[in-house]
Amino acid sequence: MTACAHPGAPAPPKPPRPHSIILLIGDGMGAAHVTRARALRGKDFQIGRMRTTGLIMTASANDEVTDSSAAATAYATGVRTNNGYLGVDRHGKKQRTVLEAARARGMATGLVTTAIFGDATPAAFSAHHLDRKDRVAVAKQVVTCGADLLISGGLDTLMVPLEELAPIGGYTIAPTLEAVRQARGRVLAIWRSSPLDADFADAPLPAIASAALDRLSSDPDGFFLLIEHEGTDSASHMHDGKALDAALRSFDETVGIALDYAGTHPGVLVLVAGDHETGGLQLLSDGGIAWGTEVHTGEAVPLFADGVGAAGFGGVHENASIGQALLRLVDDQHTQLRDGRQ
Ligand SMILES: [Zn+2]
Question: pTM, whole model, 2 decimals?
Fold first, then answer.
């Protein structure tokens, strides 16, 4: 098209686009949480390996302080919406998600969280609903989103029994990580939740990330993978410093898995972000912590990017710009592939 518009002039080279995207979200993870992770992890701090940094403004469409559904909808669809809404704009109109765009381009897709099945962050990528609390309706939508891989907690509190839920979307139930690796077709793995959405007893998040990458990486069209740690948020609501530290260690280790994968597989973009800050976390001079609130706060959250296309994520962003950028990357990469084949 460019060549027709400017006959004789070579088309300007497009910036490189990632083949695959790994988005890691620490729910409720503000700058103080990341600083705490650095203190805990020392020289093993994995987020510190990421070479591009940014800052995300987190307000939702109807509140200076967002909840996780509006925050994730901004990342998933590029549209800022009201608290409580999933995958729709503030008027309730359904919005295309990054997961849907990736699927339409033939990419493999996966949603991984330590939260319960159908919880806000993954649900914003896979459902369209005005009420995140309508758990039955949301769960049934999530399971029909067509993702190759759905992994979460909440086996003990499922509103729809697992044996009923899985067939709705044509999923095979995988009770272990080994089963996740070996299953054919779509895989649904739901563990019993741990207190405060900590790592599952027999499937820590870094090991799940590893299995998910194994599983999705065989697709020649690339993949989009969302990995969320919910423990950072839950521990911050409950002011549980020990649980927070465990969640931060696990999340940072998971980031390391993603970065190692990107280091050995060309064309991968890794993004790490919070969706909002929780708890008003304060770091004290004696190395201890204190809390300012039991709810979310409206402060900006840090963003980290590395790999192909990372440069576009430096600087200050509105939360919805992240979703817009992700949609552009998914759409453009495949336009480039198609042009390349002509
Ligand atoms: Zn929260």
Answer: 0.94
